[in-house]
Amino acid sequence: xxxxxxxxxxxxxxxxxxxxxxxxxxxxxxxxxxxxxxxxxxxxxxxxxxxxxxxxxxxxxxxxxxxxxxxxxxxxxxxxxxxxxxxxxxxxxxxxxxxxxxxxxxxxxxxxxxxxxxxxxxxxxxxxxxxxxxxxxxxxxxxxxxxxxxxxxxxxxxxxxxxxxxxxxxxxxxxxxxxxxxxxxxxxxxxxxxxxxxxxxxxxxxxxxxxxxxxxxxxxxxxxxxxxxxxxxxxxxxxxxxxxxxxxxxxxxxxxxxxxxxxxxxxxxxxxxxxxxxxxxxxxxxxxxxxxxxxxxxxxxxxxxxxxxxxxxxxxxxxxxxxxxxxxxxxxxxxxxxxxxxxxxxxxxxxxxxxxxxxxxxxxxxxxxxxxxxxxxxxxxxxxxxxxxxxxxxxxxxxxxxxxxxxxxxxxxxxxxxxxxxxxxxxxxxxxxxxxxxxxxxxxxxxxxxxxxxxxxxxxxxxxxxxxxxxxxxxxxxxxxxxxxxxxxxxxxxxxxxxxxxxxxxxxxxxx
Length: 512
Hints:
Elements: H1 20-39, H2 59-66, E1 74-91, E2 94-100, E3 106-112, H3 113-116, H4 118-127, E4 133-142, E5 148-159, H5 174-179, H6 181-187, H7 189-211, E6 215-216, E7 222-223, E8 234-238, E9 243-247, H8 252-260, E10 265-273, E11 285-294, H9 298-317, E12 321-323, E13 329-331, E14 337-340, H10 341-349, H11 359-368, H12 379-390, E15 399-405, E16 421-429, E17 432-439, H13 444-459, H14 470-476, E18 483-489, H15 490-498, H16 502-505
Parallel strand pairs: 3-5, 6-10, 14-15
Antiparallel strand pairs: 1-2, 1-4, 2-3, 4-5, 7-9, 8-9, 10-11, 11-18, 12-13, 15-16, 16-17, 17-18
Helix pairs in contact: 6-7, 7-9, 7-15, 10-12, 11-12
C-alpha cells in the first residue's frame, strides 16, 4: 500500500484555503460541477445531493475497531463510509483524501485506477473538491505508513459543497468563528470539544439532581409580568391576547409555585433573556439552571451546588483539576471557602462596614476611592459595588460570598441573626459570579412589603426593579415550606470548566 505524498505549495490543502479574491471564481466552478452531477444522475454519484448513501459504519466506529492495524495490513472487510473531504491529493493512478466525521475523526480514502477503473478515477479528479461530503465503499486496510484507510471500489458524492473551506490555521477570526460557527466546528477541535463538554455538563447536572430526588420541569418563557431577578426585560406583543408579554428573566417565581404545590425538589435548565449589556461574561440570551429544595436553606443548597459543579468537572475533565483552553490548571476540588460580604469588605478596605451605614456615607467613601456610584444608589448597591472593587479581584479559589444587604435581594429571607442582612450567597469561580443561592423568603406578608419597595424603585425609574406579582403572592399565602434555592448560568459553568469566554461556550451566540 502507498500513502499520500507530502503536501506541496499547489496542493489542495484546506490549511491554505481560498483567498477572498478567488472565492467567487471557485463558487462558479463548483456550481458548474453541481450542474454536471445533476445532469448525469445515472452514474454512481447519484447527482450532487442524493437523498441517502449506503453507509454501513461511521468513521469513529472504524477507528475504534481497526485503529490498531499493523502497517500494510489488509482485513478483507468491506464497508461503506461517508465524511467531509478535508484533504485531497491526486497523483496519477492513485488519489488520496482524508474524510472527516462530525467529531473530527478522520480516515483516509484511496481511489486507485486498478480498483475503480479509468472513468470513475477521472470523475473523482474532476468533480471532488475540499469540503464535499463523499461516500466510499471498499476494504478496510492500513497503509504502509500505518494510516487507517479505505481502498475504494466505488464512491459517490454525498453532498456537493458550493463554497470552499476557509483557512484552517487562522483565517477565521474570533468574530468569524462566532458568526460562522458551522465553519468553526468543521475546522477546530476546540469548537467540537466545547459542544461535547456542554452536553456532558448538562447530563451530569441532571444525573446529580436525580440522585438527590429532584424533578425537572419546564416553566413559561413568555410571561405577563417579569420577575425573579433584578434585570431589564425584553418586551414583545401577543396578537392572540392583544397584550404585552415579557421574555422571562428568571424561572424563579414559577418554580416556587411548584414547591408550594408539593414538588419539593425541583429544577429547570432553560433559556433566560435580559435586555442588558453583552461582554465576556454576559449574553442577552443565556442558559440558566435554577433549583429549589424544600426544608433546606442557603447552607444546604451551597453544599448541593458544590457537588453539582464538581461532578460536572469530572464529567468533562475526568477530575476536579481542570485544564483551561490556555493550558492553565484550576482546582475545583476540596471544600470551598465561605466568606462574609461585610466582613471581607471591611478587612480589604481597612474600615468597618455594617448594614446600618448611611447611603451618603457610602457614596462619599466610594467617590474617594474611585468606585463608580450606580444610578438609583441604595445601601445594598453601594456595598456590592465596593465589595467588587476591594475584594472580588483577590479571590482565587472557588468562594461562596455570604450574607448580602437586604435591599438588593427582595426574594430572600432575612438573616436569622444579623439585622439588615439576608441569607444569600454568590459563588465566585475564575473571578466571576457563577451561581447564587438563598434561604428563600416564604412569608407572604414580608414578600409583599419587599415587592412594594421594588415597585417604588421602578416608579422612580429603576428599569431593573421588580413589580408586585399578585399571583405569586397568592401562591405563597397557601403556604410554602422553608426552602433553599439556587441559580447558575450554564454558559458560565462551561467557562469555569474550560477557561473559554462566554461567546465560545454558547454554540450560536447573539451577534449584531
